[in-house]
Write a structure and sequence with these properties.
With about 90 residues, the chain is an alpha+beta fold. The chain contains two helices and five strands. The chain folds into two domains: about 45 residues; about 45 residues, no CATH class. It has a three-stranded antiparallel sheet. Strands 1-2 form a two-stranded antiparallel sheet.
C-alpha cells in the first residue's frame, strides 16, 4: 500500500467519522430538546381539587366535566358521576 493510498483512506475515514458525528450530535440535540419540552409540560401541569372527594389531581390526568360555564376536574369517573347526580342537568364531555 502506497503512502498516497493510506492518506486517502485516512481522509475518507475522517470524513465518514465527521458525518457520523454530526448526525449523532443532531440526534442528541433533538432528544435533549424533547426532554426539555416534557419537563416544561410537567411544570405547566396544574393541580386541581376534586369537588367530591377533595383529592388534588394533575389537570392532564383528571376527568373533566363542563358545567355552567365552569370546568370541574375529578380523580375518577366515579367522583364525576357523584357530582352529576348532585348537580342535575350537567353534560359530560
Ligand atoms: Zn375523587
Amino acid at each position: 500500500m502506497g503512502p498516497l493510498r493510506l492518506l486517502i483512506l485516512t481522509l475518507l475515514g475522517y470524513l465518514a467519522w465527521r458525518l457520523l458525528y454530526s448526525h449523532l450530535r443532531e440526534k442528541i440535540k433533538k432528544e435533549l430538546w424533547q426532554q426539555e419540552r416534557k419537563k416544561k409540560e410537567k411544570v405547566e401541569d396544574v393541580l386541581e381539587e376534586d369537588p367530591v372527594c377533595h383529592t388534588l389531581i394533575p389537570r392532564s390526568q383528571a376527568v373533566r366535566l363542563r358545567y355552567n360555564d365552569k370546568t370541574y376536574y375529578f380523580c375518577s369517573e366515579t367522583c364525576c358521576d357523584i357530582f352529576i347526580d348532585r348537580q342535575q342537568g350537567a353534560v359530560k364531555k
